[in-house]
Amino acid sequence: MQIPIFTVDAFTNRPFSGNPAAVCLLENGLDEDLHQKIATEMNLSETAFIRKLHPGDDFSKSACFGLRWFTPANEVPLCGHATLAAAAVLFHIQKNTNSVLTFMTLSGELKARQAEDHIVLDLPLYLTYPQVSQNFAAVGDMIVQDLRYSPDTKKLLVRLSDAYERSVLEELQVSAQRFLSAEKTGKVKGLILTLKGNSGGEHKGHDFYSRYFAPWYGIAEDPVTGSAHAVLSSYWSEQLGKKEMLAFQCSRRGGQLKISLRNDGRVDIAGQIAIVLKGNLTF
Predict the structure, then answer these.
(1) Could you say which residues form the signal peptide (predicted)?
(2) Ordered per-residue pLDDT tens for the chain, 283 residues
């Protein structure tokens, strides 16, 4: 069997930065266990599988496809950067002629459209709720300004003190593995660290910064995370009183996201892409 596969760096316009995702185009059905085996083999934070919904569908002409995402360890209900990567493969490699693509996923219908040199994802917006502060092992003795929980996504949002600079977040040694050991209830599946943006200095222009950790899914740190920004967008919009924001995820690879809260309770998250690999899986 041969399956076309691509590696796309998402939320960046430079190869080898942003967040890499593998994208598989499934011309035919795939045995269920092979999804996980392929994702484990690719060993990226996410591998996306695009499938046709009807026998007569065409990757170049159809407007609606099925989409699933797998980490090296398990399937996940939502992945923003791999959705961006999947749309990039259809728009830029398959030359799909539709202005908007719809993906049927575990998180419902997700849409992607081209807007100049960006691809815009229409994602659910997830609310957060205050958490009682606790001894927070993952960030050591850092000052935590706010602690929130998103029950829909099982993500814990930790806002560090506004007194910290971006460099503090970038250099922070996070013990995600220690937090994994401490959190075994199943309540938390993702840890977001975030910091208010800087109005001055060399990094001015970003409304907020973040880093994201998901050891529960086998991902120590994810480079740039669309699904985390579906949570961050609601939090920072409320905190800053803004619906249009520019965010930067401060991983080693780094990536930028343009955010626009919609009037229908969803969020548009836009990013650029760089396609770095084209090939075939053969087995």
Answers:
(1) none
(2) 999 999 999 999 999 999 999 999 999 999 999 999 999 999 999 999 999 999 999 999 999 999 999 999 999 999 999 999 999 999 999 999 999 999 999 999 999 999 999 999 999 999 999 987 665 666 778 899 999 999 999 999 999 999 999 999 999 988 777 878 878 888 999 999 999 997 665 556 899 999 999 988 888 899 999 999 999 999 999 999 999 999 999 999 999 999 999 999 999 999 999 999 999 999 9
pTM: 0.91
Domain boundaries, the chain: 2-122+271-282, 129-264
The domain made up of 2-122+271-282 has a fold known as: Diaminopimelate Epimerase; Chain A, domain 1 (3.10.310)
129-264: which CATH number, 3.30.450.20, 3.40.50.2300, 3.40.50.300, 3.10.310.10?
A: 3.10.310.10
- Residues classed as catalytic: 46
CA angle 6, 10, 14 (to 5 degrees): 95
Distance CA 50, CA 27 (A): 9
